[in-house]
Amino acid sequence: MRIFRQLVWKFLRANRMRTAATIVGIALSMSLLTAVIEGAVSGVRYLREVEIEKNGSYDLIRSDLNAQEAERLSQLDGVKQYSRITEVGWANIHSTNEKKPYLYIQSAEDNLKDLIALHLTEGRMPDKADQILLPEHLEKQGGVKYQLGDALTLQVGTRSVNGQRALANASLGHREEGEDANKAEEKLVDLHEQTYQVVGFYKKPSADLESYFCPGYTALTCRAAGDGRYTVALTIRQPEKIHAWMNEHPDLLKKAKIHKNLLQFYGVIGKESWRIMLYGFVIVLLVMVVFGSFSLIYHAFSISLSERTRKYGMLRSIGATRRQIRASVFYEAGILSLVGILSGIVIGCLGIGLTLHFLQDLISRFVMNTPVRIHMVLSGAGIALSALICLLTVLLSAILPARRAAALSPIEAIRQSRDMELKAKDLKTGKRFHQNFAAMMAKKNYRRNRRRSRTCVLALFSSVVIFVSASAYSAYSIQVIDQRAGNGPDVFYFYSVDHMTSQTADLWKQYREIEGVTGFAAKLSPQNISSFSADRANFSEDYQKKSMNGQESQENGQQKQVNGQESQENGQQEQYEFDSQLNFIDDKSFSQLLKENGLSQEEYMNTSAPRGLLLNRFYLKDVKGEETPPLMKKEAFPLQISGKRMLNLQGEDARFDILPLTIGAGITKGFWFERDVNGIYYPVSAMEAVLGRNSSENGSGGVTLAFQTRDHSKTVEELEKMEGKLLGYRGSVYDRLANAQTTQATILVIKVFAYGFIILISLIAITNVFNIMSTGIILRQRELAMLRSVGMSRRQLVRMLSYECIGYGARALGLGLPCSVGISYLLYRLIVQNEFLRPISFFLPWQAMLIAVAVVFAVVLITMRYAEHKVSKVNLIDALKEEVV
Fold first, then answer.
1. What is the pLDDT of residues 236-250, one digit of tens each?
2. Residue ranges of the alpha helices (H) in 685-780?
3. Angstrom distance (rounded) from CA 223 to CA 151
């Protein structure tokens, strides 16, 4: 085999340009594989570090343990690190938040900060039993204010509900956490006086330590005597096996709280959709890289071996076996792989490392809003996987050329008769070519060597498909993120009410008066009205055709009747259900809605005979934006509809009644701060007239407040201060403007990665095309020399080659662009089209397609000029003598 290895090295040195192009292609492929996999590993590690920074590194927390149980849990096999927290007691601090009246005092061990994130906003951690660290939301949500150095004297005791001790995170008036029983009498027992010095303040801790149901604000001291109840936070040595580990100790860990937001980044728990999205994104990129790499390397080996066909025939004629020929091809592949993979690892690591370095501030400040900075994580397993994929790609690319080289008989290989098999029809070019000699020769050359010609077309085809598909994938991803940010108010505030009364709307006045608010709207939506129905004759023809088929009964041809009632024989109209949401909006916003739709204020603001508005449209997956068809016929208004209302929300025996509603008009422009949801609107002043006084006191509802403001961050701060005072519990604030800034930063990050990927994949494609076409023309130097010897000028030669190259490009674009459109549509269906993103319509990446067309013709013509220049340098006599047997 030594002689064959020497021959391989001789072939590589003799064709330095092609060898270099193949190595560059492998290196680019390896660098892309490395960048994709190492980027994914670095991204997951970064998300893990962000979660640790926000909430802590603990894997699970177990509360309400006695001293013996806490000791047993701490000493279990598999525990890596633990910290114990002792309950000191509860103290009533007269918070304005009626659902959170207590201060929950706990004594922490010194290593608690290693497991649970405690972000100090002022002061320091306590180091004595008479010092205390207070949470900052005690003032913001509870209205209780202290300063550093204040002496805090409290009556500390134990929570008792109906004579039994309540669990740590059980809500007010409940003994068990999450208990569904009705609220009972609760009091503090075994009170004793305790004085503390305030030494610091910290941000609200993880919800696993202080849940949303907890009726107290968690304050921390240290080295204090507890009341015998413990909480243990711990990490385990193998977090990916946490479920199996917990099943081994069910008595201690059955009620443990798992750190889901952290463990999801180990791939063992949490959001399946998140993992599908991440792995799907990585797989799509890897498939594109492998496809482009396979095309480049396969064609490089095919053309390289075609050039050496005669040499392999001579080796076979003197006794070389097929196995030796195949081994020499794989040896060449191994040499090229070694150089290309090592170079690619360096290039890929440098590329992704520098990219993440320059994006650190942007990602940490705007995208994640955290001080944690992203950096490249060098994963040995990731690099090994990248190298394995690249090596397999090279070897698979070399298999077919190696088998083809070994299968040739010596006579066929020496005569090179297989490369050109002419048939009579191959000589026919059509009358339109007779007047253009260069075009006629280009056509004959394409037909004469179809295998080589198809190789060039396939290389261009794959390049076009990869470039356009990658561009489409990037464009659709950006559209999704941009659309999710949405438009509308600067700030949203959401909360719920147990009973919908007129007092609900009275609170809205105080929110409207927040300093800096320039626009305000409020909406109250009952949660006990589940569905609506109307006479079939009132529905539009589009709705009846496309939506009512799903409401057909399968039994005896009978149609579905609302509430299970059969239609009467006296001509009563059939009732059909439709989806909507009943909303009561503040009177000012309702008045503005009437004005925008040209409706009477007196008629619709009359609370004695209330009339509602229906957003008259319904949505289909294949219909977008303003083209959405109407739900009801225009002539059907005013109309009567019915709502199905649940009277008792608790208990298994649910009772319902029918709520009659009068709809005065159908509108096409909805409430200003909402997207185009299918809603029914009434003024909030008509709520009791619509629902009835008794019914309104039985139902719960969700409230949405929308704000236009001069300073969105200041409005958010004011809302957080007000929520405990006005509501008595926490709501949810959504800062849309801040989210929009995050969205823009996220889009920029995606563009950097996407365009970097597209540039590299394009370089692979261009290298592929250059290598194939230039080598293909150079291999034909004897043929071109014969044409020159019979009088063809260099200008005519250039024209002939130009026609050939334009033919390659036209064929590749004719196949590649339609295929790219199909793949783009599949990517659109995969990424964009779902029920939450209906306004986004399918679009073609025209810019990428135009760039592909321009680049294809530019690359083939530049490649042709380079190859022609190389061929023209060869002496005519030498070229004619080269292939003479």
1. 998 888 888 999 988
2. 687-691, 693-698, 712-726, 736-778
3. 18
Cβ(69)–Cβ(255) under 8 Å? Answer: no
Q: Give the span between the Cα atoms of 25 and 340, in whole angstroms.
A: 8
Contacts of 850 (CB under 8 A, 6+ apart): none
> Alpha carbon of 332 to those of 16, 108, 290, 382: distances in Å?
14, 65, 20, 26
Give the max Cα distance, the chain: 115
- Predicted local confidence at residue 126, as pLDDT: 93
Structure tokens at 427: 């000589």
With vertex at residue 380, the alpha carbon angle to CA 22 and CA 38, rounded to the nearest 5 degrees, is 70
pLDDT tens for residues 747-761?
677 677 777 777 777
C-alpha–C-alpha distance, residues 672 and 352, integer Å: 44
Closest C-alpha among 69, 72, 524, 54 to residue 265: 54
Instruction: Pick the range with the lowest mean pLDDT from 91-95, 228-232, 305-309.
Output: 305-309
Distance CA 658, CA 296 (A): 69
- Closest by CA to 438, choosing from 806, 780, 776, is 806
Q: Does residue 550 carry a pLDDT above 60?
A: no
Length of the chain: 885
Q: Is residue 562 scored above 80 in pLDDT? A: no
pLDDT 10s digits, 613-642: 998 877 654 444 445 778 888 888 989 999
CB atoms under 10 Å from CB of 723, counted, come to: 21
**In sequence order, what are the residues at sequence separation of 6 or more whose Cβ sits closer than 8 angstroms to the Cβ of residue 511?**
493, 517, 520, 522, 705, 707, 719, 722, 726
Residue 416 confidence (pLDDT): 55
Q: Is 549 exposed, middle or buried (0-12, 13-18, 19+ CB in 10 A)?
A: exposed
How far is residue 603's CA from residue 611's CA, in Å, rounded to a whole number? 8
Which residues, including other chains, have CB under 8 Å from residue 619's CB and lie 6 or more apart? 628, 676, 678, 838
Output the CA angle 770-774-780, nearest 5 degrees: 160
- pTM summary value: 0.65
* Unique residue bearing structure tokens 């709280």: 257
What is the band of 58 on the pLDDT scale with cuts at 50, 70, 90? very high
Question: What angle is formed at CA 291 by the lines to CA 286 and CA 294, rounded to 5 degrees?
Answer: 120
At 202, phi and psi to the nearest 5?
Answer: -140, 160
What b/e readout covers 23-36, taking b as 16+ CB neighbours within 10 angstroms?
Answer: bbbbbbbbbbbbbb
pLDDT of 688-697, one tens digit each?
Answer: 888 876 644 4
- Whether the pLDDT of residue 772 is over 50: the answer is yes
Element (H, E) at 700: none
